Amino acid sequence: MLIASLDGTWKVFPDKASKVNIDEVCDPNYNDAGWYDIRVPSHWQESVDALREYSGVVWYRKKFDLENPQGKVWLLFKGVFYRTKVWLNGEYIGEHSGYFSPFKFDITNVVREKDNVLVVRVESYDEENINRKKQVGGIFYHWDCRDPTFNPGGIWRSVEIHRTGPVWFERIKVIPKIAGNRAELRILIWMGSEIEGVVRIRLEIEPKNFEGQSITHELDIKIGRGHNKHEAVVVIENPKLWWTWDHGDPNLYRLKAKIIAGEEAYDEREITFGIKEVRLVQKHGRWVFYLNGRRIFLRGTNYGPTDQRIANVTRGDIERDAKLMREANINAVRIHAHVNPLAWEVFDEYGILVWQDMPLQWSYDKSVEKEAIENARELVRLAENHASVGILCAHNEPFLYPDPPLLARSALAFIVGLLFSAFFGSLGMRYGISLVSNMFWKEILGLLDKPLFGLIKLGWLLGIVLILISMFPGFALMLGGLEAILFSVVVGIVLPWDAILIWVALSFLLGSPITALAYNWNKTVLDRKLVRVLREEDMCVHPVVKYSGGAGWFIDGTDTHIYDGWYTGWLTPFIWLRGYRHIKTFIGPFRGVFRCVSEFGAQAFPKKENLLKFLPRDLADKVQRNFKDAYPEMAKYLKKLHQYQPEFMRLWVNYKECSTLDEFIDRTQDRQAELIKFYVEYLRARKYRPTGGIFQFMFTDIAPLVIWSVVDYWREPKKAYYTLKEAYRPVIAVLEWPNKGKAGRGYKTKIYLINDFDMNFDGEVRIKVDHEIVFRKEVSLLSDSVETIPAIFRLPEKRGAVELIVELDLASYGVVTNKYRLVIN
Question: How far is CA 189 from the centre of its chain?
Fold first, then answer.
C-alpha cells in the first residue's frame, strides 16, 4: 500500500571531485543551502540550469517526515539513471544498476516519524569509448538517432514509500495455455515472509476492457521465513483472447491478488494481462510469427523513446503515437534498444504487438556482463504479463562501431595484410607456393589467374562479386566504400586465399570492424548468455531473438537491417546498383536473408517550419535567403548536433539542384517515401517466401533531429508516413516495381494480391494507364495469402511519364488503389 510520495523538490550537488562526505550529508542538521533545487522525477540536465552539460556523480538529498510508520515499510525507486547507492538516516541500505527497472529497500528498522534524511548517489557518465560502453543504457548513451549532447542522468521516475504486512508479494507471473474453448491460467506467485504459518491467497480475475464474468479463486498455503513460491491454476471457459487490432480485439483481464491473514490484508497486487500464446519459427529460410496458433504477418515500425527526456513522457504522449501507428496500419512495433514500461500498457490496449529489445546498442565493455544479465532478468519480470509483448531480443547490432581509432586499426591491418599477401602471392605465383593447398589448388589458381578479356582476370571478377555481397545491406557502413574497393583489388589480383587469410588474421588481432561478422565478445559471448537468461527467467513463454541485425549470408543469422538506398550510394560507378532495386538481383541466392527485415529507410528533413525551430536564428535566415550558399554551413551544424548525414544525402538528393530550402526538403521527403514504398511492397509480395515480418526504421523523432523518422519531433508526419499508411494496408494489390516502357509496345508485369486478414475475398483487379483500363481479371483472395498474377498490356503511343494505377475491387471490402509512375520512351 502506498503511504507516501517523495516526489517534489529535492536538493542536488554535482560531485566531480568526489569530495562529498557521506556522514556530513546524512546529518539532519547539515546545511545544504549551497545545493541546487531539483524536481523529482526529472533529469538533472533538464531540471537544473547549472547542470545542463554535466555528467558523472550527482548527490540527491531529501528530508521528510513519515507519520505512523508501522508494519513492513519499503522505499521504492521506480527508475533511476543509472547507478544508484542509497543511505537513509546515515545507514547504507543498498544499491542498484540499470535505468528502467523499479527497485526497493526494506527501511522498516531505519525510518522514523520525524527528520528522515534520504541521500542518494546517482552516477551517469557520458561514454568515452563507444565501443566499450560501461552502462546498460541502450540508445540513451549511444545512438545515431539521439541528441548527442544530452545525458539522461537522474531520478527519472517517482520515489515512493509503501507498507505491507509481514508477508508480501515479490512477483506474480500468469502463463496462459489455450485449449479449444477454455484457457488454463498457470499463476506463479513469489512471496517474501518474516513469519512462518498459513496465509490465504485470494485471486480475483475480471475483464478489464470488455463485458464478462469475474472469477474468484482462494487457497490457503503454508509459508516459511524468506522466499516462498506457490503455483495456482485457474480455468476460464470461453476466454476472450488478446489479438492485434487487425485480427481481433485486444481483450485484457485484470488480476487482483491479496495476501490475507485473519481479517488483515498483508499485501495486494494488481496485474493486467491478456490471454494469448505466441510462437516464432526462426530458421535460415523462415521467420514466421504465430499468435494464438494463427500465422500473422508483422507490419511493423521501430520506436525509440517517445521523447529522449523520458521523465517528461506521459501516457497521453504514447497514446498519441499509438494512434498514429494504428492509422498507418501498423500492427507491430519494435521498441528499439530501450525500455519504458508505460509503453507496454498503451500497446496492450491498442492491440499493437511489441518486439522488445534489451537496452543494448552496439558494443560494450566486458565489465557490463553482470549488470546486463541482471537487467535481462528485470526486463522479463517487468514485461512478462503484458499482453502486447510478443518477442524479446537480447541486443541490437552487437558490432563494433567504425569510429576513427577502430578504422585506423582496420586500415593498418589492411595495409600490412596487403604487403604480406603481395609478398607471399608473388612467391606463390613465381614458385607455385601457397599457404593453402589442396588437391585442386593448382587448377583453382590457374582458373583464377586466367584472363577473361584484356587485363581482367576471373579472380578480379570474383573479388568484385565477393565485395558486392559484403557491402550489401547491413555490411556497407561497417565495411566502408574505400575499404571494400581496395579489398576487391587484393582478392582479384593477388593470390585470393593468401590475401584473405592474412588480412583476416590481422583484422582479428587489431580489432577491425569486419571481424564482427565472424566473432566478437558482445555477440558471441555476452548475447548467448543473455539469451539463456531471458529464456530461463521467462520460462520460454516468449520467443527470443539472440541479436538484431545478423543477416546471416552464409551461416544462420537472425533478422536483417537493409540500408541500400542510403549507405550503399558510394558504389557510384555501377549506376544500376545504386539505390535499392538491385535487391531483386540478390534475393535469389540469398533469399533467407530477407526472412525478417527489421530496419530499412532513409533520412528526410522535417517540414521547414519545424526545421527552423532548431536552427540558430542567423543560420535560419541565411538558408532561407540563399539556400545553395548557406547549405554547407547548415549541413555541418545539423551533422554535429542533430544527427544529419550529409555525406550520404548528397548521393541521393543534390542540394545544388534545388533553388530553395522548401524544394530541398520536398525532395528528401519524396526520396524517403519512394524507398519505403519499394521495400514494403517488395517484401510483402514475398510474404512467407521468405519474409515473415518487416519493421520500418523509424517512426518518430525523440528530439529535434534530421534522421530516418516518418513523423518528426512535433508529430508532424512526413510524406513517407502517408506512403507507409498506404503500403501497410492489410489488403492491397502491388505491381512489380515499374521499369521503363516503350511507346505503343506491350508491357509485361506481375500483380501481387496481398491479404493479411483471416478471411477470404472475391472481386476484380484492374490496371489503368492514365485512368484508362488496360487490364482486368476476376480474382479470389484466400486468407493470409499472396497471389501472383501475370499481366500484359499495351502502352499508349505518347512518351513521357504516365500514372500506372492498380485497383483491387472487393465486394465485401471496397476498392483499394495503388499508384506508380511509369516512364515511356
Answer: 31
563494433: which residue's cell?
A: 400
For the chain, the first-to-last Cα distance in angstroms comes to 75
Do 594 and 690 form a contact (C-beta atoms < 8 A)? yes
> Pseudo-torsion of CA 458, 463, 464, 469, nearest 10°?
130
Q: At what angle do helices 661-684 and 627-642 cross, to 10 degrees?
A: 60
Q: Taking the alpha carbons of 49, 305, 649, 463 in that order, is the dihedral positive or negative? A: positive
Rg, the chain, Cα only: 30
Convert 64-77 to b/e letters by CB count within 10 Å (16 or more is b): bebeebebbbbbbb
Alpha helices in 239-368 (DSSP H): 315-327, 341-350
Contact 537, 373 (CB under 8 A): no
CB 56 within 8 A of CB 14: yes
Mean pLDDT of 661-673: 97
Burial class (CB in 10 A: 0-12, 13-18, 19+), 446: exposed
Burial of 477 (0-12, 13-18, 19+ CB in 10 A): buried
Task: Sort 196 into a burial class: Cβ within 10 Å, 0-12 / 13-18 / 19+.
Answer: exposed
Grid cell listed for 740 = 521503363
The vertex-141 CA angle with 94 and 672, nearest 5°, equals 145
> What grid cell was written down for 453?
578479356
Angle of helix 627-642 relative to helix 617-625, nearest 10 degrees, comes to 140
Vertex 147: Cα angle to 127 and 406 (nearest 5) = 40
CA–CA gap between residue 46 and residue 152 (Å, rounded): 9
* Residue 619 to residue 629: CA distance in whole angstroms: 11
Residue with C-alpha cell 535481462? 376
Q: Closest by alpha carbon to 286, among 599, 595, 546?
A: 595
Confidence (pTM):
0.89
**Cis-peptide into 41, omega within 30 deg:** yes
Backbone angles phi, psi at 559, to 5 degrees: -95, 170
Q: Bridge partners of 790?
A: 750
User: Which parts of 466-579 are beta strand (E)?
Assistant: 544-545, 560-562
* Matching residue, cell 548557406: 630
Query: CA-to-CA distance for 399 and 363, rounded, in angstroms?
Result: 6
Give the mean pLDDT of 64-78. Answer: 93
8 A C-beta contact, residue 163 and residue 72: yes
* Other Cβ atoms within 10 Å of 778 Cβ, number: 9
If residue 160 lies in a helix (H) or strand (E), which one and from where to where? Answer: strand 159-164
d(CA 183, CA 186): 10
Question: Is the backbone peptide bond immediately before 358 cis, with ω within 30 degrees of 0?
Answer: no
pLDDT digits (tens, 9 = 90+) for 12-30: 999 998 889 999 999 999 9
> At a CB cut-off of 8 Å and minimum separation 6, what does 595 contact?
283, 284, 285, 286, 287, 559, 560, 690, 691, 692
H helix or E strand, kind and range, residue 481: helix 481-493
Lowest mean pLDDT: which of 7-11, 319-323, 512-516, 680-684?
512-516
Instruction: Look at residue 532 and give its three-state secondary structure.
Output: helix
Q: Are 796 and 770 contacting, i.e. CB atoms less than 8 angstroms apart?
A: yes
